[in-house]
Structures are given as C-alpha cells and as structure tokens.
Amino acid sequence: MIDRTKTNSTFASAVAHHDAGRLAEAERSFRAVLKEQPAHPVATHLLGLICAKTGRVAEGLELIKRSISYRPNDADFQRNLGLTYRIAGRTEQACEAFRASLALRTDATVLIDLVNALNDLRQHAQAETYARQAVQIAPKSPDAHIALGSVLMALQRIDEAIGVFQTAVSLNTNSGEAYKRLGMALYHRGRFPKAHDILELANRLVPGDPELLNQIGLTLQKLSRRHEARAWFEKVLSMNLTGVDGLFHTANALECLDRLEEAIDLFKKALAINPDLWNAALANSMVRLGRTDEAMELFRQAVERYPNYPLAHLNYGLTLLLKGQYEQGWAEYDWRWHCPTQHEDPRNYPQPKWKDQNIADKRVLLYAEQGLGDTLLMVRYLPMVLERGPEKVILECQGALVALFTRSFPRVQIVRSTETLPEFDLHAALFDLPLIFKTTLETVPAPIPYLVPDPEKVAAWHARLGAGLKVGLVWAGSASNPGDRDRSMPLSAMAPLATVSGVRFISLQKGPPSEQLANPPAGLNIEDYTADISNFDDTAALIECLDLVIAVDTSVAHLSGGLGKPTWIPLPYSWFWLYLEKRHDTPWYPRSRLFRQSVRRDWTDPMNRIATELKQWAQAYDGT
Predict the structure, then answer these.
(1) Region 556-565: what's the mean pLDDT?
(2) Beta strands 392-397 and 426-429: pairing type?
(3) CA distance 537 to 452
C-alpha cells in the first residue's frame, strides 16, 4: 500500500531541491516518488528536465514525452518538450512542440521560444510573424522586443533592429541582454565607438556572458585596439564552457585568437550536436588555413539547406571566385546586397538598376561600393561600358581618386561621393559589372595600363628623385580591414631587403604603420617623401617614376597594377578571391607577381624570395 503522505512529502522536498538548483538531490527524491507512483506526471516531467540539463538528453526526452502522455493538455509540458528538443539539436520537433503549447495557451514566452527555434532553421519570415505577435501580446516585455530585433538582424534589417532594441532597453534599463543586442546591432551597422560603450554597459549588468565578451573583443579589433581585444577572447577561454553554445562561443574566441585548428575542432563538435546552429565561422577558418575545398563544400551545403540565407550565398560566391569559377561565383556574389552586416546597403534610387538592359543613349550612374583598392580594381570596366553607347557615364567615387580618374577616363563624368549627383536613367555598383559583362577567368578585362598619372607631377618627381633603381614599399594596410591581421606585415618583416645592394627603397606607406620608419631593420635605408602625397594622383605620379613596387595587398598594389607598373605582392597564406589559388600571377594585373606565404603568418619565405629576385633585378639594371 502506498503511503501517500510520505510520497507527497518526498515530492515536496524534490521540488524544493529542484527550485534551489540542487539537481542531484532533486533527482534522488523524484526517483523515490516514481518508485511509489510511476505515473506521477509532474515528478516524471521534472525528472526529465533534470536529465536534459545534466547531459542525458535522450533519457530526458523520453521522460518528458511520458509525462505528456499522462497530461496531454499541459501547455508547460509541451513547452519544456520543445526546449529539450532544442538542446538535442532537433529543432523542427522543437517547433512542433512549441506550436502544440501555443495551441493550448497563447503565451508570449512560448512565442519567443518558437521565434528562436525558427531563427535556427533560417525561417526568418515565419519567425517575424510570431515575434510581432509576442510584442502585440506583451508590449511591455523587453524579451519580446529582443526576439523581434533578433529576427530583424537575421533578415539584415539592421536599422529596424536597432530601433527595436532601443525600445527593449527603454522598457528595462537594467536588461544586460537588451544592451548586448543593441551593441551587437550597432557593431554590425559600423558604429564601433558607440557599440563599444553599449557593450561595456551590458557587461557591467551581466558580467561573464561569453557571447558578449567575444563581441567586445571584436569591437575592440575594429577600433584597432587589438591587444585589449585579445584579453576579452582569453576571458572566454578561461571559462571552460561546455554544451553546444559553450562550444560555439569558445570556438569563436579561438578563431579570433588565430588558433584556427582548435576552433575548427570545436565548431565541428558543436555542429555534430546541433547542425541547425551552422554559421560561416567554421568554413571561414578553413579558408584561412587553405582548406578551400572543404570550405566550399560547407558553403554549398549551407546554400542547399538554407536557400534564402544571404550570408551563405555570399561566402559561397567568394569561394567560387577564389576557385576561378566566375560564372556561378558572380551570381552568388550578388547576394552581398542582402548582407548589410558585410556590405553597404543597396542604393534605393527610383531609377531602375542596370542588369542587362540596353543602355544605348541612356545616362548610366556607376558608383564605388567598397574600399579604395576595390574601386581601383573595377574602374577597368569603364571603357567597356562606354562601348555600349550610353549618352553619358557618371562615376561616383571616393574624393581621393577623383583627379586620377578624371584624367584616366575623360569621357566619364567623375563625381565625389559627397557631391550631388547629376540626372541619370540607370544605375549599378562597380562590382555589378563583372556579372553584367559575364566575366569569366578567360575574359577578365586587363587593358594595362588603364590609369594615367599627371605628366607634370611625373616630371617633377623624376627631377626630384634622380637616378638609380627605385623600388616602392608598402608593408601594411588599414587596421579596420577585416583581413588586415593576415595581409599586413611589420616593417621588420622586410629585413631581407637590406641584403640587396644597388637599390633605392622609397616608402609609399601612409597611416600609422609609417611610424615604423623611425626604427627600420638594420641596413635597410628607406627614403620617405609621403609628406608630399595628399591623394592617389600624387601617389600615381610617384609610382610612375619607380621601377618596381613591392606592396602587400592594399590600394597601392591595385594602383600600381592599374598603372602597369611591375608589382610584387607578398600574400598571406589565406587567399583572397582576386588572386585565385596556387598561382604566382593574376589575370587582373598582368605585370604583377604573387609571393605567397608557405607558412601561415610567417613572412620569412616570401620576403626571402622577393629579396633573391630583387638582387637579380639589381644586377641586370643598366640605369635606363
């Protein structure tokens, strides 16, 4: 005979242990209850939750489903089944359970759970519907607004997301999660100083959130405070996180610390638990290690599994371009317009976008959409656009390029990006042109040179520099570039050049890295005239007077290549799409040569090879 008084007392004790987080004690008590009352629905259910929380997910699911068989109309039971399915990586079943819970009782918290699960499945349109329903039901709930903002972020509607997160913050000024999400949105909008302030505030409210710690580190990297950033990533590692989320956060920190092999291992372990948590970090780490075949397959699988996931398409496109598969690559790269976290917003002009329309007798606006080097790369298409017979071609570009482009393309109206645009009929970004012209590896336009320096400035530099074999040097790019940690080197890495005699080295380095000229490698004498360079027109004239340029992958390398100057580019082990794989030349700049790292993050080999070949140049130089 069952002693119900004793059983009820044991059950009450079990619940108290559970609520206090004493899970081992709670489990023993719940099992004692079930020994006396095997069909006790709440004891069965709570024991299932304990199993799920302590890593025995399969047993937990079985117990929770059994409890639902005893009490099928309990909305909380259905919700907890969904949460446990998410732990198990069975996200579609989680959505079914959340919907079953909502069918029994409309609840904003369960709507938020469903939103999060749909986000994992990249079903963002459905997720937005449920998120807005949660906000309607609970307009004063910061969590509901956070869920909606997260969906908007996934949909790449960042400005809307910022507004929603600001609402969440106003509803609870002590919500660290709301501040964290707002800071992350500001980061993706490129507002790094403000993002850093907000994220620091979030960390004071909820210290120890690994996602937040990683985000602070990433923001400090964007602010060129790399040493400080490193400390935040190391904090994540010191937490010894477990579980699928913990594995992901740790892997992201390892990737940021350049411990790529370890990061890949943890990403794989996390995805083995829950494939729906796929992100680009695993494949991007593989690209940085030169494992591009594996990376491309991962991106291909992502595109297949999530056909409306823009970032997967963009990364797949970049990998295809790296492989020289231009026809499909340019089409996938067009998804960049749906990735504002990676790219600027599309121009929403009332005039139609130029895709493949006839532009004869039309006024066509082209505009720079990326960095200075990218603009220098893509203006090679301007003569091809003119060949199609437009009434006018207008190019909007960065101010530093206006003078050079005005001379180089006299039939094109060059406009600064800060100026009012003239009238136009169609528009396209410069990086739309390869797709418009169906560029293949065999048809890359390379009318070298396509840039024309100022002849008067060239004459002045010739007179000023005098005779000798002159080689320009650039060792670093902008620290704000996401790939700068791989592409840039310290001036000290150019020490092998000091062994080359008969060469005059001329600095073309601008920005903070130029300060390294105060302490050059022993024996490396570098002349510096950059104080007299104010724009790319000045730099172009100086380059024209040189015999060779040695530059890491920066705008100067593109400028030199477009001028038709022999250019040697030391490249990192991780490959940028423009330079393809395993090649020592590039179809984009026929007079450029590539010197790739043989060991990641080690410039010794490429700089030694450059020094060896430069010695041969110097020996053959006849002074003409």
Answers:
(1) 97
(2) unpaired
(3) 9
Half-sphere exposure of 337 (CA within 13 A, CB side): 13
What percent helix, strand, coil does the chain show, rounded to 5?
A: 60, 10, 30
Place of tokens 């909007």: 396
How many whole angstroms separate alpha carbon 548 and alpha carbon 567? 6
CB atoms under 10 Å from CB of 440, counted, come to 15
The structure tokens listed for 152 are 């908007």
Q: Which residues pair with 363 in a beta bridge?
A: 392
For the chain, count helices (H), then strands (E).
29, 10
- Give pLDDT tens digits for 177-226: 999 999 999 998 889 999 999 999 999 999 999 999 999 999 998 888 88
Q: Using alpha carbons only, how large is the chain's radius of gyration in Å?
A: 30
Measured over the CA atoms of residue 218, residue 220, residue 222 and residue 224, the dihedral's sign is negative
Write the CA distances from 344 to 329, 406, 429, integer angstroms. 20, 25, 11
Q: Sorting pLDDT into bands at 50, 70 and 90, what band is 3?
A: low
Starting from the edge strand earliest in sequence, which strands make up the sheet with 412-416, in order? 412-416, 392-397, 363-367, 426-429
The Cα 256–Cα 233 span in angstroms is 7
Q: Can you give the pTM of this predicted structure?
A: 0.80
**Alpha carbon 593 to chain centroid, angstroms:** 28
Distance between CA atoms of residues 567 and 201, nearest Å: 47
